[in-house]
């Protein structure tokens, strides 16, 4: 199944998949309304400041995102004993947004140099075909693919994580084109490269299938599930935190990461 945005009002998409958005439906305006920019500019500035703090003292080019690749002891050794930290989410989920903003981003500010961060998605796979489905519909599947493609094309975590936060901040608008273009511009992402990944037959949908399969293999069904060193560390669902044996605060998660990192074994 091929997914992409139309590049002009006259382009006719040669497929009927509902996630392939025509230009006029996926782009509300050439320039977002003044109110939308006002709404977006403050969160964008705050995000950039947080990411600046996050990577001010840490060199993070070693962060690599490979959907579907399991962590192994050798991977951890190669990453200088970095602790696997993973979230399982749905792109159009308010709990995923809150999990990212209330726990993951502040934690990464403190311990980015000590973790190998991964983001996986939750959905369903048809074992007899290439079809995938997402809880919030085809638009969420496309949103997931967009975020996976950003992580693949821009493997520096500060870029794709910032882009992800930008998108999820306005999760009801995912996957509208003006949101994608705005977030891409804010975080230095080439929209054309992103669209190539989305459009390439087999690539975008393949990334999503692998990501969903990873969540299924780890018995994860709720967005947002946080896993630390391969174990469920905390879940946010229905606006609440639960199944958080070590506590749900940033301080608690940072403390656990530091303990695992200092032990030098996962």
TrEMBL record:
Q: Where does the record place it?
A: Secreted
One Gene Ontology MF term: oxidoreductase activity, acting on a sulfur group of donors, disulfide as acceptor
> Residue ranges of region Disordered?
1-28
Q: Which UniProt keywords apply?
A: Glycoprotein, Membrane, Secreted, Signal, Transmembrane, Transmembrane helix
User: What GO cellular component term, any one, is given?
Assistant: extracellular region
Read off the Pfam families from this record.
Answer: GILT
Q: Which residues cross the membrane?
A: 37-55
Instruction: Name the family the entry cites.
Output: Belongs to the GILT family.
User: PANTHER family from the xrefs?
Assistant: GAMMA-INTERFERON INDUCIBLE LYSOSOMAL THIOL REDUCTASE GILT, GAMMA-INTERFERON-INDUCIBLE LYSOSOMAL THIOL REDUCTASE
What is this protein's name?
Gamma interferon inducible lysosomal thiol reductase GILT
